[in-house]
Design goal:
Blueprint: H1 9-29, E1 46-49, H2 60-75, E2 81-82, E3 87-92, E4 95-101, E5 107-108, H3 113-119, E6 127-131, E7 145-151, E8 164-168
Helix pairs in contact: 2-3
Amino acid sequence: MVSLPLLTHSTIIHQETNLAFLRQRLASLLPLALSPLMTASEPAFWFCTAPLPLARDAPGRAALVRAAAAFTRLYGAEPLTLAPEQAQVAVCDGLLFGLWNGAAESATEELGGRVRAAQADPGIGTQCLGAADGGEAGGAEDMVLSYMFGVAEDGWEDWRGGLTEVRKCAWSTT
């Protein structure tokens, strides 16, 4: 028989707060009210928004490669398995790259998925989601296990006892 840790009222409140904050952040990443910035000629990996006036300041492909490499340095190169509603995020030099599991069960990223994500052009999006489970970024419902990329906001924090882990680069000013 597996012994489960005792959940205190404080832990439950902390995790509920963490989940509410993560859902709020992800809602800001999902372009429900904005048109996605994707080309019609080929399926896009990234599903992005670029709320004006930030479009001109979009980080672009080179920044995506740097952010994905920083994530790999901080979390390792092996595919990650995340619990339901768990996120692992790297924040470096004003950018974030992360992995989020929105499923009701644990999920593991595909081998080579991060490389695929880093090679895909995010266009001018400043807040992007990409399918880490082999799907295409056709819409939010297709992305249960998702990569996140974009401009880092001050609110990304590591919640002790919560489901979101944020690691920051030692050299990062963010």
